[in-house]
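Slide 14.
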Amino acid sequence: MRRAVFLDRDGTINVEVGYISDPAQVRLLPGAARAIADLRQAGLAVVGVSNQSGIARGRFGLEQMHAVQAEVERQLREEAGAWLDAFYFCPHHPEGVVEPYAGICDCRKPGTGMLEQAARELGLSLEGSFMVGDKRIDVACGHNAGLTSLLVTSGMPLDPAGSVAEEPASTLPDLAAAARWILERLAGGGPR
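Slide 15: predicted structure.
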């Protein structure tokens, strides 16, 4: 089965603006498109997994979220001929006000629902796969699914250490550096 790199979106692939709801707000982070292309060229699936609690909170709707994602994908193709194998999102939040998205679910990170769904639908192996994100909740999600988790500092300021017990395998400045880290480990047969 094919291994994957699961990527958080906002703050990892594109600039974090907080509850992004307009395609005009989309700006890819430097090197992100090339990093995705390099990971795919190495034979890895690249899958986006994103908490989008703005839907449950009533800040934007599904159509706006899909429009933003379409613009992310357009910019990836335009900049480096890159694309995601799939994109999964969690619209839920326990404090949400929009039904049916208000409440607890198994897909919201650090839950592993999105990763497990991707593995089933795309025929991916979670064993030997990676999670890259800009929040400790992403690291925890990866750990919960048995992945090697990398933290990038290209998004929002990090929450205080210790709020999630799991530590990343490495903390790196951005997705480009994370892709190099992953590819070096795979090429060298090093720890995963």
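Speaker note: The helical segments are 32-41, 62-80, 113-122, 136-144, 175-188.
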